[in-house]
Amino acid sequence: MKTDTRRLMMFAAALLFAVLVGYGLAKLTGGQDAGPSPAGHVDGGGQDEHGDEEAEGEEGLVVLTQPQIEASGIQVVALGRGGGGETRLSGRVESAVGARAAVAASVGGRVERVVVAPGTPVRAGQPLAVIVSGEAATMRASADAARAEAQAARLVYQRDQSLVTQGVVARQELEASRARSLAADATARAAAAQVAAAGSPDAGGRVTITTPVAGIVGAVQVTPGGFVAAGDLVANVSDPAQTELVFSAPPALAAQIAPDARIEVTGATGSFSAVVIGVAADVREQGGMAIIRARPESGTLPPAGSPVSGVVVAAGQDDTLTVPVDAVQTVEGRSVVFVTDEKGFRVTPVLAGRRAGDRVEILNGLSGDERVAGSNAFLLKAELAKGEAEHGH
To answer: Which positions fall inside the CzcB-like C-terminal circularly permuted SH3-like domain (predicted)?
Structure first.
């Protein structure tokens, strides 16, 4: 009996202990799950901090202060107007106007001597070849005779002036001698000019062909002992230091390109910028093509004869909006620009058109009054992607 009573008391004590332990665990667990946070406590997911994240993480917005914009080198620009288009041209390097000469024979005759060879540097007025010409000898003799006649007529006129004062010669005869003197002087001047045009031959008819420009002798077309006719080419001379670019262009482009326009040129020595110095139709070109002449903004050109290619921007006549090329970025497969507002830069989808030089047409998406990020706009794209990645976690 006593044994049963003892066992019953031990069982009741164990049961009570189990109940107390279970209640304690439930109380402890319930306090952690359902216990309210203190009124003043804000944890990592609290409402205040979450509100700040929404302000900073607004979709399509990159928040930057003015000091941050200046420090990052982002340039804010206004929209431009006036579309345009690029035209690719082919051309070559040529000697500049005034720096080249095709020296021809002024009279026909036999080549007595050739003074230069291809590649010879020459000064302006330096001899290239000597020609012996019977025609030139005749010109020189005629000029000498005309000069002598003019001198004789002048002396007759002076003598008649003296005789008129003495009453020996009538004034009418004096006037006639004066007229003959003037005519003889005119004939002598014409003969002298003809001799000068022929190269000022000597009495033996030798004519020295000289170069009118300084430079390097190119092709020499005559040889000693050969015969040349008046107008035949003797040699080419050009100054390699004075060259320019010559491009062939469609005729319609000539009306759209003005002097001082820029051409981006690519040649054997690399790429460089050039400035247009002249545009005109060239009847020598097949199909009536126009020619565009340009000079580099700095540096030297490749040797004359080198082929080059160029890209020229023809200004449009419309009122299309344009932005710098750097302003247009690609976000999620769309062309966008970053438009400024009071909070920072807001992503704005646009429809981009043609590229003209360093500008891009904007056909849709902007009104024209906005200011957008130009240089270093890619930094805003990177910052936008960074913010989206953080919110994705």
So the answer is: 321-381
Structure tokens at 159: 């003598």
Is residue 144, in this structure, part of any structural domain at all? yes
**258 contact partners, CB below 8 Å, separation of at least 6:** 276, 279
Per-residue pLDDT of the chain (393 residues; tens, 9 = 90+): 444 555 545 554 555 444 443 444 344 334 444 344 333 333 433 444 444 444 455 778 888 888 888 888 888 888 877 655 667 888 999 888 888 899 999 999 999 999 999 999 999 999 999 999 999 999 999 999 999 999 999 999 999 888 888 888 888 888 999 999 999 999 999 999 999 998 899 999 999 999 999 999 999 999 999 999 999 999 999 888 888 999 988 877 777 777 888 888 888 878 888 888 988 876 554 556 788 899 988 878 888 889 999 888 765 555 678 888 888 998 888 899 999 988 889 899 998 877 766 778 888 888 888 899 988 888 888 888 876 656 555
Range of the domain at 347: 58-83+319-392
Is there a contact between 201 and 135 (Cβ–Cβ < 8 Å)?
no
**The two three-digit tokens of residue 301, written as one number:** 């050109």
Angle between helices 134-166 and 171-197 (to 10 degrees): 160
pTM of whole model > 0.70? no
